[in-house]
Amino acid sequence: MASTSPRLITISISHFCEKARWALVEERWALGLHRVLTNLNGAKGNTLPILVDCKTVIQGSGKIIDWADAKVGACGAP
Questions:
Q1: Are 49 and 37 in contact (CB under 8 A)?
Q2: Residue 7, by phi and psi: left (phi above 0), alpha (psi -120 to 50) or beta?
Q3: What values do phi and psi take at 41, rounded to 5?
Q4: Taking the mean position of all CA atoms in its chain, how far away is CA 74?
Q5: How far is the C-alpha of 51 from the C-alpha of 46, rounded, in Å?
Q6: How far apart are CA 75 and CA 6, in angstroms?
Q7: Deepest in the core among 28, 33, 41, 55, taking most CB within 10 A?
Q8: Distance (Å, whole) CA 78 – CA 64
Q9: What is the DSSP code (8-state) at residue 7?
């Protein structure tokens, strides 16, 4: 099944798959502490999720999805 979105397909027992998951860094912040950390990371306001792409901060799930779509756009449709 073809898709224009990047997908990481894994099996749970594989250490090679785990290594690939580590490359996709997710940080989980504690509720409350996120209010300070969002500002320290350059976001406006204190809502999550945020995505930090080099020096660019993308805030909000819709904007993050738009960012991902733009990055994948180079792959083109099947």
A1: no
A2: beta
A3: -95, 10
A4: 18
A5: 13
A6: 9
A7: 41
A8: 23
A9: -
Q: What letter represents residue 4's amino acid?
A: T
Per-residue confidence (pLDDT) for residue 69, from 0 to 100: 83
- Find the farthest-apart pair of alpha carbons in the chain and give their distance in angstroms, rounded: 43
- Write the pLDDT tens digit of every residue in 32-51: 999 999 999 999 999 999 99
The full DSSP string for 32-67 is TTHHHHHHHTT-SSS-S-EEEETTEEEESHHHHHHH
> How many Cα atoms within 13 Å fall on the side-chain side of residue 52?
13
How many CA atoms lie within 13 Å of 24's alpha carbon, on the beta-carbon side?
Answer: 8
What residue segments make up the domains of the chain, in order of their start? Answer: 28-75
Map tokens 């580590």 to a residue: 22
Stated pTM of the model: 0.69
Mean pLDDT of the 1-17 span? 76
